[in-house]
Design goal:
Order of helices and strands: HHHHHEEHEE
Largest sheet: 4 strands, antiparallel
Number of domains: 2
Strand content: 15-25%
Radius of gyration: 45 Å
Shape: elongated
Number of helices: 6
Structural class: alpha+beta
Distance between the termini: 88 Å
Strand order of the largest sheet: 1-2-4-3
Number of strands: 4
Oligomer: single chain
């Protein structure tokens, strides 16, 4: 048998010059038949699955689609054209209000910033605020230059403030008073609605 494998590459190949009988074929050649039967079973399964999909599942899905389309048509017919137009107008208005609300500036936050960052010894006498630029010009009095430096530090430590700049400072004639002007620039989005 080893000689047959060496020359013919198969353990079932007959030696040269011999004939195979029916008994030899039934006992030694089972592997190709088993492979053929397994392939036929897989092929039949694929055909059955395809037939089930094509003749069972596809009509079911098409029926479900038709059912949903009929329900949509029924709802569409129940809602009048005027009602659809009113609903669309209401939705559009609500959407626009939402968009405006996102861009709404809350200027009342300015008072909280003033109160939080102004030292007790500093008096604010005038405030000009530009919503577009986010800049606020302050005018007021401070007892001394050192107090104004402390005030500057308080504003600069606030995360909502992008910059603080003293425009002018004039010492007053009396002790403990001096007029100043300063510009506070707030970070973008500080006064926007969250």
């Amino acid at each position: 048998m080893a000689d047959n494998q060496q020359y013919y590459g198969s353990p079932i190949a007959p030696p040269p010059g011999t004939r195979m009988t029916a008994r030899d074929l039934s006992s030694g050649g089972g592997t190709p038949w088993r492979l053929l039967i397994a392939s036929a079973v897989v092929f039949v399964l694929v055909l059955v699955i395809y037939a089930g999909m094509a003749f069972g599942y596809e009509p079911y899905i098409n029926g479900q689609i038709a059912n949903q389309d009929a329900q949509l048509k029924q709802v569409e017919n129940e809602v009048s054209q005027g009602s659809q137009s009113a609903d669309l107008s209401l939705f559009s208005q609500l959407y626009n209000i939402g968009q405006l609300n996102k861009r709404h500036v809350i200027a009342s936050k300015l008072f909280g910033e003033l109160e939080k960052n102004t030292l007790p010894s500093v008096r604010i006498t005038n405030v000009q605020f530009s919503i577009l630029s986010g800049a606020m010009i302050l005018a007021g009095t401070a007892p001394s230059w050192q107090t104004l430096v402390q005030q500057s530090s308080a504003w600069e430590q606030d995360p909502a403030v992008a910059s603080f700049m003293v425009n002018s400072f004039k010492s007053g004639s009396g002790a403990g008073s001096g007029a100043f002007s300063a510009t506070v620039t707030f970070a973008a989005g500080t006064f926007m609605q969250n």
